[in-house]
Amino acid sequence: MKCNFLNSKSWMIIHRKDSKKRNYDALLKNIEKLLENFNKDF
To answer: Considering the entire predicted model, what is its pTM?
Structure first.
């Protein structure tokens, strides 16, 4: 779980450099998926 969280955090840092809206929308979708997976673990 920690590895997946760190990888997603790195992904967010990489995409923060590009402020295009479509990338922001994709980021939000990835965060939603991450939260879903996180909730399944607990």
So the answer is: 0.42
